[in-house]
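Structure representation.

___
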Amino acid sequence: MIPQSVFPTQPLLTVDNFTIWSNHYHQVSLSSCAGHILPSSPSPMTPAFENYDTTFAGSIPDTIGNLKLLTILSLNNNSFNGPIPASIGFLSQLFWLDLANNQLEGHLPVSNATAPGLDMLLHAKHFHLENNKLSGNIPPELFNSSMILIHLILRSNELTGRIPSSLGLVQTLEVIRLDRNSITGPMPSNLSSLVNVGELYLSNNNLSGPIPNLTGMKSLNYLEMENTQLQGEVPVSLFSLPNLQTLLLKNNQLNGSLDIGTTYSNQLRLIDLQNNSISAFTEIAGGYNQTLILVGNTICEKQNIKRSYCTVSQPNNDPSYSTPPKNCQPISCSSTQVSSPNCLCAYPYSGTLVFRATSISDLGLSGYYIDLEAELMKSFEKLPVNSVSLSNPTKDDSEDFKIRLQIFPSGQGCFNRTGLSQVGFMFSNQSFKPPQDFGPYYFLADHVPYDCYAETKKSLSIGVIIGAAAGGTVLLLLLLLAGVYAFRQKRRAERASEQLNPFSQWDPNGGSGGIPQLKAARCFSFEELKKYTNKFSEENSIGSGGYGKVYWGTLPTGQPIAIKRAQKESLQGGHEFKTEIELLSRVHHKNLVSLVGFCFEQGEQMLVYEYVSNGTLKDSLSGKSGIKLDWMRRLKVALGAARGLAYLHELANPPIIHRDIKSTNILLDERINAKVADFGLSKPMGDNERDHVTTQVKGTMGYLDPEYYMTQQLTEKSDVYSYGVVMLELVTARMPIERGKYIVRVVQMAMDKTKVLYNLHEILDPAIGLQTSLKGLEKFVDLALRCVEDSGANRPAMGDVVKEIENIMQIAGLNLNAESTSTSESYEVSKGNSGHPYYNETFEFEYSGAFPTSKIEPH
């Protein structure tokens, strides 16, 4: 058990095997990893606990309420018992509360005149209290309208009574799991007001009454109400929820006639109504072409129903996925080592990722795992990790989704203790953000059967002995080389100076003698840019991201500029920075954002671009910039971006692959001309790389070429794939991955080429002008889907894309040779809502959605 003194008022102490650094820390993570508790990185803000082959037991002390600055409390997967301390209610800064998988008992504590309670946690977004022995009613006082809770997970307890109607007050909720309790009574009707809930689990309770009207739950995509004793007919309105994908209602007392209507959601893939008393089915013309299961209903005794409805054919929840090798042949390793996806022998750090509320109903789709692998590698990119491997995805009886994870070290055969601690800390402090479909998680690590720390000490001892024996020989050689060393020292100093400042012999205004030259790009001093941006004031700040901040400024000539200023931790090496400037200075096209200059002094790295006044394409499609794009204007934007990319691929010398095409990297000037921006990930193609470049996978999820991800071979066709996704964004105004749905699959599933506009009316952006003629839209969608073909060989080149869009514009009656003479004012730009070309939302620690969609920040 944890002694009371673990949460002290003294600054530093040691209790048994646990060292506590301060009572002012922000996180307590005692999550047992299957007998292996990984230490967190010691700091004045984070406690370090290290204990192997054990779990924590006993009660959670009331003095935990003394940690006023605590933001994360994670005590899951231990053997804690007794009640939840009411003093947790004093933790006003708490963001994450995870007490799952223990033996806690008693009531859920709420505040009163003399005691605190969980209802006081107004900053908390996560209540993970599943798999305990909590009992009694869910108190109505637990919820209030001031809460910002997004995950409420109380499943697998002993809770009774009704679902309190006060739950409907928490409008931020996105995941609700109350399944596997003994909850009674009807469902409260005001659940329909929870417009952000995506996953709702109520199975294995003792509910009664009919299914209420849930039409207000517009975000709902996964609804599970099995074994709940619900009665009456299934309301036809339930099937029209726009995002509903999975509906599980088996083993209830539902009866009457089933009618899914003619406006059921085109996302709906599975309806399971096994073992009810449904006696009739109003079948639509052509039948329901997805999975409908009516086994165990009286209707299956009739002869006039489609027989497939009366057989069990559920999604594959036990697939045999395993991460494939990355364009290499697996090698034979020793009995205790494993061949990684990059075909290197190593000792992996392994365990099980457990996702608590996934919206995935069909585990057989490999695309989910490709996205998960990419997000893992993105989280580990600053750690000593070479690759990751996923295998054996399954769903257990509690609908938890589990998948085996192996993490392979880089630069050595196994992780040392520092590496293990860093990797484990990514999971314990929830720094890793999985794709949205997967939901909240925890990681159960396997016991580590090796100790690289001990091996290092052993190797060091042997090295000392060998070094002492060879010392005399080395000393003699050093004496002989002393003269040579002195002779070369001067040249080394000169080279070191050049390394520290690679621009020292570079004339940015044009020189001679083979020195690299900049074309129309200027070297600015720090003081100049400081003056142009009003000392880098907040008033001049127009965006921020992982690279740093972006400032607006004005040159003495009156030309507006945008300055990307790198923060200290994002600085590149001098030569890398120089190479990027040389690359940018060589590309000149009206559909590419121009580099004005750079600054490399006083420890600063800044890039100066032309200022593009009307923000990003994403801002316009989302309505943020106030610019309204009709069909004609969208075609012009598509053509401009395509021309810019075709220039990079076919006319730049050497050819350049952008590698991060997305709607936030396409900017619109004052005449709504498209300009491709942000070349931070761009890759030039050398003479010996005309077919492909083998390189580390980088890009943005949703736009990333799956062939590039699988093979690590980058080609121009990788940009074509990303551009195809942008084309689909142009017609739908949807994000590439939105509430677990991939835009490519959404369009493919909704398409019917026998109907007008391919039957895409429901997913087209209303702002495109649905009431007007959309000539050429079908050809535009056809072209987009060819751009996102799985195989790069089947995708068109960007030059061909340009020609086809030009043909589509002629069909639409648009003059290709006429430049727009109107300014942004004619495009209905709302005053006070100006977009900025380098605006980028930062990736917050808190979740947004079930889990946020990742954003690559400015480079």
